[in-house]
Design a protein that fits this description.
Elements (H helix, E strand, L loop, with lengths): L9 H12 L5 E2 L3 E4 L5 E4 L3 E3 L4 E6 L7 H9 L4 E5 L4 H30 L2
Parallel strand pairs: 5-6
Antiparallel strand pairs: 1-4, 2-3, 4-5
């Protein structure tokens, strides 16, 4: 029986293992619907979806490949995607992943608090 890990790149396997170490269940290449910069509908598959957090992780395996376009489209469509630059040192990408998860969660909390305050009479 084939393992899902056989379809992953080496950087993706390392990130998958780190997510597991953090106790985060993930789905590999979970499809999402986006509109591109010309308004055309597209289905993209970020590397990992973390259901409990409602966010995605895209593994950037090389600095030679530009990810700016994908970042712009995900943001435009309202998806929280953490771009992990695996080619940087292990400590850097691991710390960055945790930092971005915390930032996104804090942003969400702030938005909910503003909404609740607006409802109070």
């Amino acid at each position: 029986m084939a393992s899902i890990y056989t379809d992953m790149s080496e950087p993706e396997r390392h990130v998958a293992e780190h997510l597991r170490e953090l106790g985060l269940r993930w789905l590999y290449e979970f499809p999402i619907f986006v509109y591109d910069d010309k308004g055309r509908p597209r289905v993209w598959t970020p590397d990992f979806y973390i259901p409990n957090l409602g966010m995605y992780v895209e593994v950037c395996g090389s600095q030679d490949h530009g990810y700016e376009y994908r970042e712009k489209i995900y943001e435009k469509n309202g998806f929280h995607v953490v771009f992990v630059h695996f080619y940087k040192s292990t400590a850097r990408w691991k710390n960055y992943l945790i930092k971005r998860i915390m930032e996104i969660e804090e942003q969400r909390h702030d938005e909910v608090m503003k909404m609740l305050q607006a409802l109070q009479f």
